[in-house]
Design the sequence.
């Protein structure tokens, strides 16, 4: 039986990575065969590409950024995601193709045709079965990012983006939700971690039940 690909999306500071860890833990505790992964950096090569992009002090050209993420994704899909799906596993990825549409398309203002062409080359047409988008006001997300930086003293290139940039990214995510309402589920992530987790579990339980996974 073919597995299912579930992806988590959201602007930085939305809390999606915390929810990703909580969902994976819950499903594994129920005996589900889950592969937890993320982009960028889901493979050894991807981790090196992530370091190049996020930790460099050099200015990264927008096209170079787009192609770096595509290289990471091509490796991720070919070596990790497709084999797991072929084995019937549930793959849950923290970010996937919609991140490119939102960040490089909306944030960096690349045209949709260019973004879609690069995504298709990297994925071979693979698309998520379900995507959870964690929506949060930009101001709240930036406050969370600032709090994290203060507590860890660590930053990467994306932590330095402007409110205007993240507003464009969020608008593009919401546009995807309007275009693909059957796949793309918007979750209000402005509340507590526990409140958001309950909504996530309700959504996932319905999805797995409906698909007899």
Sequence:
């Amino acid at each position: 039986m073919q597995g299912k690909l579930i992806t988590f999306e959201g602007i930085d500071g939305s809390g999606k990575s915390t929810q990703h860890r909580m969902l994976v833990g819950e499903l594994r505790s129920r005996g589900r065969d889950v592969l937890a992964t993320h982009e960028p950096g889901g493979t050894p090569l991807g981790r090196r590409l992530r370091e190049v992009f996020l930790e460099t002090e050099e200015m990264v050209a927008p096209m170079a950024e787009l192609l770096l993420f595509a290289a990471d994704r091509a490796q991720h899909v070919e070596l990790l995601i497709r084999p797991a799906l072929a084995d019937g596993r549930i793959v849950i990825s923290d970010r996937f193709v919609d991140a490119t549409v939102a960040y490089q398309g909306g944030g960096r203002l690349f045209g949709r045709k260019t973004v879609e062409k690069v995504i298709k080359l990297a994925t071979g047409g693979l698309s998520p079965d379900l995507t959870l988008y964690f929506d949060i006001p930009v101001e709240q997300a930036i406050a969370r990012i600032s709090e994290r930086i203060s507590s860890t003293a660590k930053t990467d290139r994306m932590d330095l983006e402007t409110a205007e940039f993240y507003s464009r990214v969020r608008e593009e995510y919401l546009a995807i939700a309007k275009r693909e309402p059957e796949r793309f589920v918007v979750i209000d992530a402005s509340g507590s971690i526990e409140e958001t987790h309950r909504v996530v579990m309700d959504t996932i339980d319905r999805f797995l039940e409906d698909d007899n996974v």
